[in-house]
Amino acid sequence: MSSRSPGIVLWGFPVIYLGWAYLFWSLILGSDSSVWELPNLLFFLLGGASPLLAAFLLVWMQSGKAGLLVLRHRLLVGRRLSMPWLLVILTYWLFFNLVMAGIAWFLGISARPFDIHWELFRDPSGLLFLILLSFVFPAVEEVGLRGVYLDALLRRFSTGMAALINGVTWAVWHAPFVWFPGYYANTTFNPAIYWWLPMIICTTVLITQVYIGTGRSIIAVLLFHGMMNFTGELLGISSDMYPFLLSGYAVVALLLLLYWSNNRMPGQSHKKGSE
C-alpha cells in the first residue's frame, strides 16, 4: 500500500470481497452435489478468488503497478521473519492445542482430545489435499485480507478495532462454508456457526499481532494461518473439543486487546485523513 489515504480500501475491500464471493457461492448453497464436483467447484474457486481480486483491483487503483510490486515483495520476501517469530509461527498452534487438550482432559470435557492422523504421511493424495487446504487457500486469503484490508484498517483505527473489523469481515466470508455440501468431507473438521465464527474473529486478533510484529509480512501471517489448519487436522482434534477451544482463543485474544489498549503499536497511525 502507498502512503495515500486508505479510504477507498475501507469500504471497497469488503464490498468486492464479500459481494464477488457470494455472487458465485449462492449457486452452491442448497445444491445436492458436492462442492468438489463440477460446476460447484468452478463456482467455489471463482468466489474464493475474491480476496485477490479485491486486493489487486484496489492496489492498482491507488498505486498502479508500483503498488502491486510492493505487495508482491511483501508476500515473497521473508527477510522480516526473525528466528523468534519463525519459532512462534511454526509452534504456537501445536503448543496451544496441547495445552488446551490437557486442560480439557483434566476437567473431564474430553476423554480423547486428539486422534493423531499419522496415516496422512502414507497417503500422498490425502496429504496433498491437506496441504492445499492448509496453505494454498490461506495464501489467497492473506494477500488481500491482511496485506491490503488490515493494512488500511490499521492506518485508520486503533489496533484492536482494526483487528475486530477485519475478523468480522473474515467470519462473514466464511459463513457459507458450513452449508457447502461435502466441503469438509475429507477432513476431521465439522464446524458449527455458533463457535466457529467467534473463533475466526479471535484468530484474527492473533494474526494481527503476527502481522504487526513481523513488520507487515504477508508470508508470516500466511504461514501462521496455514500452521493453524495443518496442525489441527494432523492432530485430529475431536469434535467435542472445539467449543472448549473457543474459550482459549477468547482468552488470548482478550489479553492482546488489553495489551494494545495500553500500548500503541509500532507503525500505528491514528491521524485520520492525514495518512
In quaternary terms, these chains amount to single chain
Instruction: Note the gap between the termini.
Output: 11 Å
Derived structural class: mainly alpha
Give the helix tally. Answer: 9
How much helicity do the residues have? 55-70%
Query: How many beta strands in the DSSP annotation?
Result: 0
Average residue pLDDT: 88
In N-to-C order, the SSE pattern is HHHHHHHHH
Radius of gyration, whole Å: 19 Å
Question: For the report, how would you describe the main beta sheet?
Answer: none
* Shape category: globular
In terms of per-residue confidence, which ranges show pLDDT below 50 for 5 or more consecutive residues? Answer: 270-275
In terms of DSSP E residues, the strand content is: under 5%
Q: Can you characterise this structure?
A:
This protein has 275 residues and is mainly α. The protein has a domain at 80-262. Helix content is 68%, strand content 0%. It is built from nine helices and no strands. The protein has helices at residues 7-25, 40-48, 50-76, 83-107, 124-154, 159-174, 193-213, 218-235, 242-262. Helix 7 runs parallel beside helix 9 (242-262). The protein is globular, with a radius of gyration of 19 Å. The protein starts with 6 loop residues before the first helix and ends in a 13-residue tail after the last helix. The relative contact order is 0.16. The model is unreliable at 270-275 (pLDDT under 50).
